[in-house]
Write a structure and sequence with these properties.
There is one protein chain. By secondary structure, the protein is α/β, with parallel strands linked by helices. It is 38% helix and 22% strand. It has five helices and eight strands, in the order βαβαβαβββαβαβ. A six-stranded parallel β-sheet has the order 6-3-2-1-7-8, sandwiched between helices. Strands 4-5 form a two-stranded antiparallel ribbon. Strand 1, helix 1 and strand 2 form a beta-alpha-beta unit. The chain is globular, with a radius of gyration of 15 Å.
Length: 158
C-alpha cells in the first residue's frame, strides 16, 4: 500500500486548486494509494484534509493521518458554541500523529515534521511556487526531490 503526503504554502485561495487536488487524490486512490498524511498548518493543509475527508465517504478504506506539531494545535482548531459545546472538530474521524520533535526549536518543528512525512511517503502532492526565494514548503519540495520521491505540484497545474 503506497503512502502520500501533502505540502503547500499557507495561503491558497483558488477554487481550481481544490478541484485539481480532488481529481489528483481520487486518481491516486484508484491507483492503489490508500494512506494519506496531512499537515495541520495553513490553508492548503485545511483544503487537503477537507478533500480527504470528503473522499473517505466514498472510499471508506483510506487512512488519513494529520500531523500535529504541538498539542496546542489541536485545541486551536476546535470551535465551540456559546455553551462550550464543540461545533467543529477538524480531526474527527482521522488519526493524529506527532513526530518526535519536542527538542527542535519551535521555528524548526514544521520543517522537521515535513521532512519526516516525506521520508515515510512514496508520493508528495504539493502546492509550491518553486520560484519563491525561501519558504518552508519550498524546503520540503526540494527535500522530496533530493530523495527521488514522485511529486505532483498543483502550483504548476493549470
Amino acid at each position: 500500500m503506497s503512502k502520500c503526503c501533502f505540502i503547500g504554502h499557507r495561503n491558497v485561495y483558488k477554487d481550481i486548486v481544490r478541484d485539481n487536488l480532488k481529481i489528483v487524490i481520487e486518481d491516486e486512490i484508484k491507483n492503489g494509494c490508500m494512506h494519506f498524511i496531512v499537515g495541520s498548518h495553513g490553508n492548503f493543509d485545511r483544503m487537503v484534509l477537507s478533500v480527504c475527508k470528503e473522499l473517505k465517504k466514498i472510499y471508506q478504506n483510506i487512512i488519513i493521518e494529520v500531523v500535529i506539531t504541538s498539542l496546542n494545535s489541536i485545541k486551536k482548531h476546535i470551535e465551540y458554541d456559546m455553551f462550550g459545546k464543540i461545533v467543529y472538530e477538524p480531526y474527527e474521524n482521522v488519526n493524529t500523529i506527532m513526530y518526535e520533535i519536542e527538542l527542535e526549536h519551535f521555528k524548526n518543528k514544521i520543517i522537521v515534521s515535513n521532512k519526516k512525512m516525506i521520508e515515510e511517503c512514496d508520493l508528495l502532492i504539493c502546492y509550491v511556487d518553486t520560484s519563491r526565494v525561501r519558504s518552508g514548503a519550498k524546503i520540503a519540495y526540494n527535500y522530496a526531490k533530493k530523495l527521488g520521491k514522485r511529486i505532483i505540484n498543483l502550483y504548476t497545474t493549470k
